[in-house]
Amino acid sequence: MRRIGEQAVFGPLRDRLGLTHAKNVLTAGAMLSPDVIRFFRAIGVELRQLYASTETIGTIHLPGDVKLETVGVVVPGVEIKICEDQEILIRSNGRFGGYYNAPDKTGEAIDEEGWYHTGDAGYMREDGHLVYLERVKDMIELANGHTFSPQFIEGRLKFSPYIQDIMTIGGFDMDFVSAIIVINFENVARWAEKHGIAFTTFVDLSQKQQVYELIKQDVLRVNESLPPQGRLRKFVILHKEFDADEGELTRTRKLKRRTLYQKYSEILEALYSDTENVRVSAEVKYRDGRSGVVETELNIMEVTD
Prior knowledge:
The protein is α+β, with helices and mostly antiparallel strands and 305 residues long. It folds into two domains: 2-138, ANL, N-terminal domain (Rossmann fold, 3-Layer(aba) Sandwich), CATH 3.40.50; 140-302, ANL, C-terminal domain (GMP Synthetase, Chain A, domain 3, 2-Layer Sandwich). It is built from nine helices and 15 strands. The protein has helices at residues 2-16, 34-42, 103-109, 150-157, 185-194, 202-206, 209-223, 257-263, 265-271, and strands at residues 25-27, 47-52, 57-60, 73-74, 78-82, 87-92, 116-124, 130-135, 140-141, 147-148, 163-169, 177-183, 232-237, 277-285, 291-302. The chain has a five-stranded mixed β-sheet, sandwiched between helices. A four-stranded mixed β-sheet has the order 1-2-3-4.
């Protein structure tokens, strides 16, 4: 079967991508999603990630030791240290000597012990693989002093076919990370019908316990790639989609966080209380074309490892 697939699909696809004769394919500059790497490897392209900068090399996926959610293991001759704020520091003989005619900038980048401060946040797993999160300046600090990466969590969860949008929540007055999640109605509806789960509206479907369990599995999967203090601990599934016409998104579908914080302040308060649900008013559109306004309760799910 693999031979047939190779001749009919995989070979022509690699040829179309210009990768027919590629032996070592490396990617750097930005984290690729596990799904992208999985796709290339499925069609016979042994894509591997590396973590480096103009100033120095850091880590690389070794053949036979590719972990999709990481950027590989430390290159021989290189040392990596993670600071308290999760900044990645690198020291090696292959590090650059400094910035041309910019001693002050060089002094900011390289400390007295020879460590190059990357400005990137990440952590080392027990298996020796490095996980890149995002720029340190974009990390958000929680009340307990730990930091988390909103873009990392949101980006990874949006690769789920069942999640359309997500806004992570956390800050100096919050002890853990939570989220408001919007389901992909079409995909979740198809999943529900396949599993014999009856529903009438978006609101009805979004609050089904089975749907919460479905989304929870995606959350648990992403949590596995995060340090314990930066994991998602609670989430609520919103009763509607985020809407650009309501000022919740830009026209390119980027979150307008300030607007969302204000509009859904009651939901945010509920996420950081002991309540298990929060009551909201919702406009609903039935499958037969009728519409109306209903009062509904949004469930709050706690996530434990």
